[in-house]
Write a structure and sequence with these properties.
Layout: H1 15-33, H2 46-52, H3 54-80, H4 86-100, H5 103-115, H6 120-149, H7 162-186, H8 189-205
Helix pairs in contact: 1-3, 1-4, 3-5, 3-8, 4-6, 5-6, 6-7, 6-8, 7-8
Length: 228
């Protein structure tokens, strides 16, 4: 019995992409936790040493929140995606590429703030973090753009507003992280870190859409939640 010969890049289901993505996201969270270490200290100085590494705690809080929101959004996206093509695989890999690198600027920010919270190195560090965080948002823009170009990749009952709202929220995140980086460079690095901590909270709270101003229900249609 002969088999049909496959030509070019064939579309596939989402199973392998989801499994690979979950693995990468789990490793990304684990790498963040490795930045929390037992600080060197003299006998009786553990409490002071633990307090002195407060920048590491802030960095972990900001980055863990960000990766957690990415995981939630990713799960909700793949509830709606029916099949994958090459463009969607590329966008998903770009998202994982930026997410896996997040531990690097997190460590840089923690070290720079520990040395001098208002110094030039801290300003460069928050700019680096903001740049990568904005790149992660732009990878979501690419993801949604591919879904807009290839709506047949989606399940047939997906909300009409899902892709459009996803792109808007992703652009908003890129602009917000970019603005936070400028704030840290021009005003104070700690202000940027405060924004880094707050933005994942905002996206988690508004993960089902923004209120439409009439009855307080999330904007959009259908029973599935909106994600950025």
């Amino acid at each position: 019995m002969s088999r049909t010969r496959l030509r070019g890049f064939s579309r596939s289901d989402t199973t392998r992409a989801e499994a690979f993505s979950d693995g990468v996201l789990a490793i990304a969270v684990t790498l963040l936790a490795l930045g929390l270490t037992d600080p060197p200290h003299r006998p009786g100085g553990l409490g002071r040493a633990l307090l002195a590494q407060w920048p590491a705690y802030l960095g972990y809080l900001a980055s863990f929140g960000y990766v957690s929101v990415i995981w939630l959004n990713h799960h909700q996206a793949f509830v709606r995606v029916r099949v994958m093509d090459r463009g969607l695989h590329a966008a998903n890999l770009l998202l994982l590429f930026t997410t896996a690198a997040l531990s690097f600027p997190t460590a840089v920010v923690a070290d720079a703030l520990r040395a001098d919270p208002a110094g030039s190195d801290a300003r460069v560090a928050v700019a680096l973090y903001a740049g990568l965080a904005a790149a992660m948002c732009l990878s979501w823009v690419a993801f949604y753009q591919q879904l807009a170009r290839r709506p047949e990749l989606l399940e047939p009952d997906v909300e009409d507003t899902y892709v459009r709202h996803g792109r808007l929220r992703s652009w908003a995140g890129a602009l917000a992280y970019g603005a936070a980086g400028l704030l840290g460079v021009l005003v104070a690095p700690l202000w940027a870190v405060a924004v880094f901590v707050a933005l994942p909270v905002f996206y988690f709270v508004t993960s089902e859409g923004l209120p439409d101003g009439r009855d307080g229900t999330p904007e959009g249609t259908g029973s599935r939640p909106l994600r950025c």
